[in-house]
Structures are given as C-alpha cells and as structure tokens.
Amino acid sequence: MPALLRDEAQVRAQLLDVRSYAVALDITRGADTFRSTTVIRFDCAEPGAASFVDIEPSVLLRAELNGRLLDPATLDGNRLPLPGLAAANELLVEADLPYSHTAEGLHRFTDPADGETYVYTACAPDLAPKVFACFDQPDLKAPFTFTVTAPEGWTVIGNGATTALPDGRWQVGAIGPISTYLTAVVAGPLHQVRAEHDGIPLGLYARRSLAAELDREAPELFALMGASFDRLHQLFDVRYPFDGGYYQAFLPELNWAAMESPGCVTFEDKMLFRSAPTDAQRAQRAMVVCHEMAHMWFGNLVTLRWWDDVWLNESFAEVLGYRIAAEATGYTSSWTLFSARKGWGYDADQRATTHPVAATGAGSAAEALANFDGISYAKGAAALHQLMHRLGDEAFFAGLNTYFARHSWGNAELADFIDALAAAAGPEVPGWADAWLRTTGVDTLRVEVEVGAAAEVGAGAGTGPEADAPEGAVASAVLVNDGTRPHRLRLGVYERDGGALVAHRRLDVDAAPGSRTPLPELTGAPRPALILPNDGDLTWARIRLDARSAQTVAAELSSIEDELSRAVLWEHLRDLTRDAELPAAAYLDLVAAHLPAERSDSIVTGVLDFTRGHVVARYLGPADRPAARLRVGAAARALLAAPDAGHGLRIAALHGVIAHATGEAQLAELTAWLEGRDLPDGLTLDTDLRWAALVRLAATGTVDEDRIAAELTADPSDAAALGAARARAALPDDAAKARAWQQLFTPGALTGPLLAATADGFWHSGSLTTQHAYAQRYFDELPTAADRGPAVTTALARRLFPTTPHPDTLRAAHHLLTRTDLPPSLHRHLSDSLDDLHRTLLHHP
C-alpha cells in the first residue's frame, strides 16, 4: 500500500477541517475479520474540490459521501477518492477488515493458557486505516467516539469513559481532538483493578490468566502513577487534560514497550513480571510509566505536525520519564539506565543512516517510521537533558508552559517549540537548536594533561598516594571539544580515598565547538588518578581519557564509588570496543577484573548482554569463544556467590551464567537446575530462566525437540511458546534449521513475537558451512518479505541478519541495498545491520 507523502498531507490539511469521528466496531463476526463502520464529519475549504480517505479493507462494503453512494471499485490500494466535496460533509464508510497478528491494526490474540481471546488496536503511524476509515495524518485531529459490539462477558475500554449499553454494545465516550494514531480500544475478558488519585480515576487491566500478577503489581503501579501525576502537575501549568480517567492496559504481543494513547495507555504485559525481575527491570518499568504519562502533554495535548518531528513526542517523554522516575518514584538510579540507553543512540548517530533529531525531512510516513530510533529517543532526550542543564529549570519549564499555552489541542513543529522556549529563556535558544537539533553525529570530548617536574603543588593537592607521584604536578590541562556543538558539562576529578575512587572535585565547564578550554583549577595540583569528561552524563558526546586516567580505569574501575560514573565509563569502554580501539580480549580482561565487584544490576545486565551478543559472538573468532565464555561465566558466578549481592543482582548474574555456559560439566549443571537439583541458594528457575537454559542447551545440541516439547506441555503460556520458538530455532541439526527457515519466510506462519523469537535463535548454532549457505539464502529471499509490514521486516532485517564476517555476506548485503524497491524500514534496518557487520570486521583484519 502506498505510504502517505508529506506533500499530500500538506494539501489535505489545507483543504479539510475534521469535525468528528464516530467509529463502530463489530468484533463478533469470527476469528478472521471484523466489521468497521465510520462516520466522519468534516469541512472543506474549497467546495467542489476532491480528496481521499484512507482505508485498508478486505472488502469495502459501502461508502456514502453526503448521501451519495461512492463506487467501491474506485478504491485504489488504501485510498478511496472523495470527489465533489461540499463545504460541510458527512462520509460513511463500512468495511470488513482483517485482524492483525503482528500488532499492526486491530490485533487478535488467543491466550494459550486458557483459550480466551483478546483484541486491541495498534494504531501507530500509518496503521489506523487498518481499523477504520480516516484521514490518517497527525495534523488532522478531531474528537472520537467508539461503539463496540463485543462477545458476551467481555469488557471494553478505550480513550474515553466506557459505558455498557442496554443492547449489549459498549460506548467509548468522546475524547479529543486527538490524532488518528492515538486512538485505542481494548476488549476481552479483562481482569481489572481500579483506584483514584487527585480526582483522576485510575484503572489497570490485563488478561485473566495474569490476574494474580496484576493484583500483585497493582499497588506499585498505582503509586508510580500517582507520583508521576503529582510531579507533572508541579512542572506544568496545565493539569492532566483528558476526561474519563487514566487507564493502563497490559497486553500481549505489542511491538512497542508501550503506546501513549490518551486515557488508555497500552503496555507490554511482560511488565507484570511473570518471572522474578531485577531491580533494573522495575526501575525501567517506572521510567516507562512516567514516560507514557508525559506523553499526555507531549504528543497528545500538543501533537507533532508531521512525522519528521517525532522528537517533539518521544524526546520529551524520554527525558521526563527518567527524570521523574529518579525524582518522584524512589528509583533514584534511573539516570544509570539512561546512560545505558544512550548507547542505542550513539550507535545510530555514527551510522550512514543517521539523521538530525528534529525536522528530518522525511518525505513519507514510511520514511518517518524508519526514524523511530535511538536518535529520536535517546539522543533527543540527551539534547534536552543538556538544555535543562544549560538553561536551568525555571527558564526551561517556563518555555514548555508557553508552548502548551500556545498550542494546546493543536499541532506544532520545531519552530514553534523554539519560539516558545526563546520567549522564556532568551535569544541563545535558536542558535543552540541549530547546533544540536539540526545536525548529525557525535562530538568527542577529551582532556589533554601535561606534567612538569618543577610545577608547583597548589592547595588542590590530593591526600592519596598520587599526591607525590613521580610524574609531578599538572603543568597544564585542556578540555578539547572535537566537535561542532557547544557543551556545558561537568568534569570529574577523582582521587583515591582508602580503597575507593571518589570525586575529589567537579568542575563546571563550557566547551565551545572545536575549542580547547583551559582548566586552570588543575594547574599546580598533583596529577589526578582519573579525570572524567562528562561526569554526571549531562551531555551527548563520546569521551576519550588521557593515558593516566585510562590506566586508572583499567585497574580500578570497580572501585569508583559513584554508580553513574561507572555507567558512563562502561559505555565509554563499549564504544571503544565497537570501534576496535579496544581489542575484544582487552574488554574481556575488564569484565573479568571488575564485573564481580559491580553492584548495579543495570550495569551488570548491559555489560553481560554486550559481551555475549557482540564481544564473544562476533568480535572473537570461533576458536577463542569457548575460553571467553568460561571467563565471562566465571565473573558471573563470582557475582552470584557474592554475600552482599541483592536478589535482583543475583538474577542478572544467573542469566549471565546460563548464557555463557560451556563444556560438559557446565551444561550438565544447567540440566540439573532444570530438574530442580543443586540450584544456587535462594534462587529458582522461573519461566525466563528455564527457557534461557533450554536455549543454551539446544544450541549446544544437549537437548532435542522432545525435551523442548515436554517443557512447553508443562507450561502452555505464550511466554513459554516464545522460549520454545527460540530454542527450536537454536537446535543445530539440519532439519531444525530448515523448519525454522520455512516458518520465517512463510507469510502468516508465525505471529510477530514468534517470528522475532525464531529469528533470535537461528544463528545460535550450526556449522560455518551451514551458516554460510543460509546467509546466501537470506539475501536472496529477504525481498520476498518486503510487503509483510514493518514488524516482520524489522525482525528479519535486524534479528536474522547474518553476523559471520564473510566476504560473500558483505557483497550480498551491499548488492541488496542497491535495489530501489525495498520499503524504507527494510532498507534502513539492512543498512544498520551492515554497519554492525563492518564493525565486526574491524576485529578480524
């Protein structure tokens, strides 16, 4: 189906003014299709002009414009022409549409645990026409009402207050004006928990098989919602703007962690934690709750005009999500999570597909959708975090409140935000925006230190052993900004204090683009043990350490007292390793030396994931991997055995032990744990851990299909089904590989999550010859999946992309990217995967 072009959207927005939508959905008509009847009332600025409405039906049953029947045969793909418009118009469209099984449209899910069925809308960009006829662009906002005919015994919720009607239908009250992509309807035999905070009705919903989990998590979720509302009401002049309440629905098979539909936010139901969570997972959930609530203002009350300003939604929600979680919810280490999250953005910003944070120039909705990435989220949030630090809260939030006052219930773009902020914060804002939001790439910050033997030791002398180090005192120190943006940052000066490295002082520094900024505060003092640029992680930049600081980090990283500083340094080491400035073996040395002493489970999880998925699996050759797994596994075991390790940290460590298990004895240990024998004290192998162990055993050929099937019989949940799909794809025998491949490339054979899980497991095993053969098939067959939608193409292009650095793989990938018929999302993800492969090759000269 053709994606909406920006030029077309601009013409339609100038022509039409949408007054209201009334959508009726009948979800009682079987498992394949549903009936959608939409009445749109809208005005036309040029009577007699023509336009079109968006709809993607199985069958278009009826269309009437101002009482005049339109010919269904005129439907062109997903566009129904609307000729001869009047000044005031009423359009009725009735159609049957297919249910989605990839969370793109009206998604239908049958719970394998109890056979109950649920449906929900997933109307992210470009998807609303899969549910109802509409003018699907963000700047044609209108009030919405929904009427839903649902099976007996079901509950229906949506954006507005919901009422059960006497005839058995459900009415979702009017809300808006909102954009089409923000509409939400959720239906099924839902379990619910209700509450109220500050006069706002609150509700939590999940499928019946997760009732116990929802009841268990409800107190914390309500506390998070209340704390987030209170903090946002302190920051913003406008109270929560949507009538009807604030509901959170935890749903299966979402493509996003959450979706910010006003009044009815949808979340992945894995956030109800069927398996024991780490502390980092709870903190991440808190951040997502705060993030989605911030969207009620950023994105919902004021909506981006076109998709190339998606940062106006996501960057603001992202930075406020971390900030409010840290300030108001008790998850004070949320900024540590953000430091790891920024790695996603740093990677994206160093690829050929990088783009500015704002006003990306996307010419179509499909192009814009490909840019929902680490730049729109992490980099944009980091830029705003830097701007908060530069302007201060008073000016920053005064600007935001001006922005809301000017554009409430409407649309805005970059210039509108800049104008509002400049009115409150002064004339420097437009220049800052040009440097930060309209450019690409990552600046590098580094410190140059010169030491003179005759330099005078000043009052800043340290108290540790470095005070009379043979190198002498600092003769000069300079912060170098190898980049094009101004940075206001903190520079941490660390010294030893007993057995710890602590910040002896922190310097606030302004670094102009391309500048060399003197640091006179360090002159005359003993050379510090560590000088950390971007201490506190207040800006968006790579860092490079001076030689002495790099030596200190290599020897004493785990002794740094401040958790966020350790997170910044682990991200720095990851960046060095991706660029092959740090050899893979040297990174493993750091893991072995410092991970056993780490007590932040978010840092531990990030380091172990990068080590497993990149350092061991990609950057090392096959012959070096068994020894590397033993070494990383030993570090994880040391963490697991640490007497002061908390429960969440031990769970993270146990995942690391399982993922790196190798050799007969360790694989036998996994088997024993699955049988309930000899488990680490205080831990159980719940669903996530059991399937992690089975995937590892499957990849090594230690278990077979019968063992996987037996586990799935014992636990028929959808979480177990995903584990089984991953384990089956990981089996090394030819029949298992052929079966997985056929499922991946047969349309409709797998739901979106099952396809992603199968792709995840596929490359875990197989001889080099087998992998090479499938790599060639991959590039031959991938174009056949181009029309299967973004969820499928993203999974195939990112999760199934071959990772073996073979010259044939490179040639085939480059050749495929020369095709001009690939959809934007597929082309984007292929290009990014190829970039990762080129970085792998840096470790295999």
Textual characterization of the structure:
It is built from 26 helices and 28 strands. Helix content is 42%, strand content 21%. Mean pLDDT is 95; it is low at 454-470. A hairpin with a 4-residue loop joins β12 (162-164) and β13 (169-178). α4 crosses α7 and α14 runs parallel beside α16 (647-659). The strands form seven sheets. Strands 5-4-7-2-1-10-13-12 form an eight-stranded mixed beta sheet. Strands 15-16-17-19-18 form a five-stranded mixed beta sheet, with helices on one face. With 845 residues, the chain is α+β, with helices and mostly antiparallel strands. It starts with 5 loop residues before the first helix and ends with a helix.
Number of strands: 28
- How large a portion of the residues is in β-strands, by DSSP E? 15-25%
* Poorly predicted runs of 5 or more residues: 454-470
Structural class computed from helices and strand pairing: alpha+beta
Largest sheet: 8 strands, mixed
How far do the termini sit from each other? 44 Å
> Helix proportion of residues, in percent?
40-55%
- CA radius of gyration is 28 Å
Shape: globular
- Helical segment count: 26
Mean pLDDT: 95
Output the strand order for the largest sheet. Answer: 5-4-7-2-1-10-13-12
Properties at a glance:
alpha+beta; 28 strands; eight-stranded mixed beta sheet; 845 residues; 42% helix
Record the SSE blueprint:
Layout lengths: L5 H10 E11 L6 E12 L6 E4 L4 E7 L2 E2 L9 E4 L5 E11 L6 E6 L6 E6 L19 E8 L5 E4 L3 E3 L4 E10 L6 E4 L1 E8 L2 E8 L3 H25 L10 E6 L6 E2 L4 E5 L10 H16 L8 E2 L6 H18 L5 H16 L15 H6 L4 H17 L1 H15 L3 E2 L1 H12 L2 H10 L5 E10 L20 E10 L4 E11 L2 E12 L4 E3 L11 E3 L8 E4 L2 H10 L6 H16 L5 H11 L6 H19 L5 H17 L5 H13 L3 H12 L12 H13 L5 H10 L3 H13 L3 H11 L7 H11 L5 H14 L8 H10 L7 H10 L7 H19 L3
Parallel strand pairs: 1-10, 16-17, 17-19, 20-21, 22-28
Antiparallel strand pairs: 1-2, 2-7, 3-6, 4-5, 4-7, 8-9, 9-14, 10-13, 11-14, 12-13, 15-16, 18-19, 22-23, 23-26, 24-25, 24-27
Helix pairs in contact: 2-3, 2-4, 3-4, 4-5, 4-7, 5-7, 5-12, 7-8, 8-9, 9-10, 12-14, 13-14, 13-15, 14-15, 14-16, 15-16, 16-18, 17-18, 18-20, 19-20, 20-22, 21-22, 22-24, 23-25, 24-26
